[in-house]
Amino acid sequence: MRLKSLNVLVVDDDAENLDLLSLCLASEGAHVLSAPSLASALVRIAQAPIDLVVCGLMLSDGDGCDLLQHLRAQPERRKVPAIALTLIPDREQWQELERCGFDGFAVIPVNLEDLVGSIVRLVRSTSGTA
Q1: Residue 2 covered by a domain
Q2: At what angle do helices 64-72 and 38-47 cross, to 10 degrees?
Q3: Most buried of the four, 30, 48, 107, 127, by CB within 10 Å?
């Protein structure tokens, strides 16, 4: 249970990816909030504490950068770590992800073991827990 008690928001408009990621992270002990769109992610953010975000870049009603912009505008959530779900990023795309506020990325199709490892490292480096 490497993600025990961690509140993770997973956002992706691909239902299969959303379900798979949510199940995987929950099996590692995370409390997972899932959202299939930007609008539903904003509702989830307002409803519960979030320790980490895993988010697709292109959503049906916006993108991951829009979500992070909203999240970072809230002083109490400014430092919430975020991982982008993306195809293999080139240097230019990685720079754009950093400008948006992402702390890392997972390449689609996601290697679940690598994603969990990245989350553990990221949470430890930002908060000293997990």
Answers
A1: no
A2: 30
A3: 30
Mean pLDDT of 8-12: 97
* 23 dihedral zone (left: phi>0; alpha: psi -120 to 50; beta): alpha
Domain count, the chain: 1
CA dist., res. 124 & res. 22, Å (int)? 21
Supply the CATH number for residue 103's domain: 3.40.50.2300
0.90 exceeded by the pTM?
yes
* 30 closest CA partner among 57, 56, 52, 55: 52
97: which strand partners? none
Tell me if 105 sits within 8 A of 94, measured CB to CB.
yes
26-82 pLDDT per residue, tens: 999 999 999 999 999 999 999 999 999 999 988 999 999 999 999 989 888 888 999
Question: Rounded to whole angstroms, how far apart are CA atoms 33 and 45?
Answer: 9
Domain hosting residue 91, numbered range: 7-127
